[in-house]
Amino acid sequence: MQTKISGKKIIITGASSGIGERLTWHIAKNGGIPIILARSINKLEKIKEQIEKQFSVECYVYKVDLEHRKDRTQVIANILTEHQKIQGLINNAGIGIFEDVMHMNEEDIERMFQLNVHALIQITKQILPYFATLEGEAHIINIASQAGKLATPKAAIYSATKHAVLGFTNGLRQELTDSKIEVTAVNLGPVQTNFFLSADPDGTYQKNVQKYMLDPDQVAQKIIRYLFVKKREINLPWWMDAGSRLYQVLPGPMERVLKKQFAKK
């Protein structure tokens, strides 16, 4: 059991499925108290029921559409009013739509930036003053992407949002160096989740990268291992992280050599 988690309240956005759902499960398994947010209240209520039955810990659910500023502002305000000593925030909610820039519609661009960037920054900013008042530790974990380090065709807009998440996370970490608030970025390759229902509706990309896809439960376990532990980044899979690092040194040669691989969307 991860004893650092036991008894701590942790907010998880996008918790109704995929990584968020598995994070909720493992937090509860380790004695933590999940506060879970998503649009689908029915899914959240089912998760709450299962967790409370199996682990005998409390789980709180909040319905919210994070694409809307007023909605997300209000739900965080409610949570901070209704709960004492929240110590963790995992900004997990996100969306991807794979399309070349010329054919991407403005509504999809707006959706990605609202959910991936604006909601993440706004929620973090709203909760920071509260974290600063805590006598104990607090931890902010932002789910970014390997795409934030290495952009590929048909993911220019998605990569731009994740570049923004990484930039925000790295800057925020430096601002909070002298505080008890830890800040961690999680950079992932493709994960087998509902993310691809919108990102890749015809299944082409999923088929091409199926053997490389990460398991959401294993991803959640890795993140939980570093919750309330000083950790700059979590990068999965290791070989994709190595490729991202090499790209920073040799972008031109890598784009030429991996042209077909990059274009699998």
UniProtKB/TrEMBL annotation:
UniProt key word Oxidoreductase: yes
Annotated keywords: Oxidoreductase
Family: Belongs to the short-chain dehydrogenases/reductases (SDR) family.
Record-linked InterPro entries: NAD(P)-bd_dom_sf, Sc_DH/Rdtase_CS, SDR_fam
Cellular component annotations (GO), alphabetically ordered: membrane
Protein name: SDR family oxidoreductase
GO molecular function terms listed in the Swiss-Prot or TrEMBL record: oxidoreductase activity
